[in-house]
Amino acid sequence: MDGSLQERGSPTHWAAQECAARGQGGARVSRREFLGAAAGAALLGPGLSSWRRADPYVLVLGVAQDGGMPQTGCYAPRCDRARERDQPRYVSSLAIVEPDAGRYYLVDASPDLRQQMDLIDDPGFRARARERRPFDGIFLTHAHMGHYLGLAHLGREGLGIAPTPCYCSPEMAGFLASNGPWNLLVDEGRLDLRPVEFDRWYEIDDSLSAVATPIPHRPEFSDTVGWTFRGPGRSLLYLPDIDSWEAWDRDVAEIVRGVDVALLDGSFYSPGEVPGRNIEDIPHPMVPHTMDLLREVARDETEVLFIHLNNTNPALDEGSAEAREIASLGFAVATEGQRFGL
């Protein structure tokens, strides 16, 4: 263990070890091998391929932008259809499930957390929730409404969780500790803040490692990170928000090529989706531009899916021309309940 990290239970440092090598975690499975195995694995659910149900996996809890879908005040046909069919799209979030160990992690705490927890169907999860300790850890990306407001459900007015590690950037930790009502969660010991260093792999438990990468995105309240998770056999990148790929000091193709699954910002398909608002005030890369940058990577190496779709994005409609275009180029839109083996 690095000498700068204190032992488990320290009040100021979270209990983790830097991974010995970036190659740790088992053999990488190529996209082509993954798709080939998937044909015979329908009973395991999308994304799981040939992995056993007892193996760690990532569960998609939501794919919508911060306001969800239908969004507040939206009475456009897409939002009305979602209401009429009782088919909402939840705000972007993930769960990481380790069935054998009975461990559960939350990635971003969205306003839809109450409903999203119902999607975690592993037998041990509800027993953990009854004990007020549903999660072994919570990973946060930043302080925009869709990514941390769900913490309110875990406070004294809601579940009243037992002490739970919360992994985030130092700036995000400072925001939570200094602003109500979030600082009440911290002061009561419910959120055990564990700020991480950027670009450093940490061993969360014996099956899961994670690294936080800084992301250029509107810093009104905190900075932003993307999280990469690595299990015994595969790795997954969760990057729901970025202002633009060109503003990043990384090569997005190189980053995505280094993982097996990438869940990327798909907020808007075209700049004309939000009439009456200046798209420059809510900057995100357009989906076609992202596909242009990653076409070769997605075709042969990494499974690339879009999340964080705004309610105006036509790719939310499975039969739309935009959704068909995404699929034809080897990409996909993630869906609630989808699973990816780690």
Write the layout of secondary structure elements.
Blueprint: H1 31-38, E1 57-62, H2 77-84, E2 93-98, E3 103-107, H3 113-116, H4 123-130, E4 137-139, H5 145-148, E5 164-168, H6 170-178, H7 182-187, E6 191-195, E7 202-203, E8 209-215, E9 224-230, E10 235-239, H8 252-257, E11 261-265, H9 287-300, E12 303-307, H10 321-328, E13 332-333, E14 339-341
Parallel strand pairs: 3-4, 4-5, 5-6, 10-11, 11-12, 12-13
Antiparallel strand pairs: 1-2, 1-14, 2-3, 7-8, 8-9, 9-10
Task: Please tell me about this protein's structure.
- This protein has 342 residues and is an alpha/beta fold.
- The protein has one domain (31-39, 46-198, 216-341): Metallo-beta-lactamase, Chain A, CATH 3.60.15.10.
- Helix content is 22%, strand content 19%.
- The chain has ten helices and 14 strands.
- The longest helix has 14 residues, at 287-300.
- It starts with 30 loop residues before the first helix and ends with a strand.
Looking at the overall shape, the CATH architecture is 4-Layer Sandwich
Taking all Cα atoms into account, the compactness measure Rg is 19 Å
- Mean model confidence by pLDDT: 84
The SSE order reads HEHEEHHEHEHHEEEEEHEHEHEE
- Total E-strand runs: 14
Q: Report the top-level CATH class.
A: Alpha Beta
